[in-house]
Design a protein that fits this description.
This protein is an alpha+beta fold and about 190 residues long.
Length: about 190
């Protein structure tokens, strides 16, 4: 471990750097961390999900954002880029630039070996502090498996899974459903 002191960045300094950068970075507690790229399967799952969501939500007051929309967790100060973010109703942004969303309804992450424990643990802990998030979806790229966490009215989150291509991802908060066969189109996970 290095004893070298890291430079602390303010949120404003992070945003200025991130807005000019070619690669995206997350930010928390003064640290800016570069995000790695994804696999072919990762990109196809994101593209399939975005296409299906846009099609199913057409004509409704919902917007679907792929991984280039920054999300701020105001309660913790985390700035991050979910793989897919959905907002229904009027989107709220941190500033006039319109590139940092504050009020998503649904957040989806495609799991990878390097991010799975973070997405399940610390990142989900941050997301739980966003009052507008009603559903958190984890999509495996190694198996046909989708985990869904739904915020309950009394506070806790319920968990369910769909594990076959015959399964359907039901998104009650936005009144939408997607067959897993569509999400995994052209994907043969390594664990299957």
């Amino acid at each position: 471990m290095s004893s070298e002191r890291k430079t602390y960045l303010t949120p404003e300094e992070y945003l200025a750097l991130d807005r000019k950068a070619e690669a995206r970075s997350e930010y928390l507690d003064g640290d800016m961390v570069a995000m790695s790229g994804g696999s072919r399967e990762h990109h196809l799952i994101v593209a399939n999900a975005v296409a299906e969501l846009i099609s199913r939500l057409k004509g409704r007051p919902c917007e679907v954002y792929p991984s280039n929309m920054r999300l701020k967790v105001s309660a913790t100060g985390l700035y991050t880029y979910p793989d897919i973010t959905i907002v229904c109703g009027e989107p709220k942004f941190e500033d006039q630039k319109g590139d940092t969303l504050l009020n998503p309804a649904v957040v989806m992450e495609v799991l990878s070996d390097s991010t799975e424990s973070y997405d399940r643990g610390a990142k989900f802990a941050h997301y739980r502090k966003v009052p507008s998030i009603a559903e958190y979806i984890l999509i495996s790229q190694r198996a046909y498996n989708i985990e869904q966490y739904v915020r309950q009215p009394d506070g806790p989150w319920s968990r369910s899974e769909a594990r076959t291509l015959k399964g359907i991802l039901e998104l009650p908060s936005i009144q939408c459903s997607i067959p897993l066969s569509e999400l995994y189109d052209r994907i043969v996970p390594s664990a299957n």
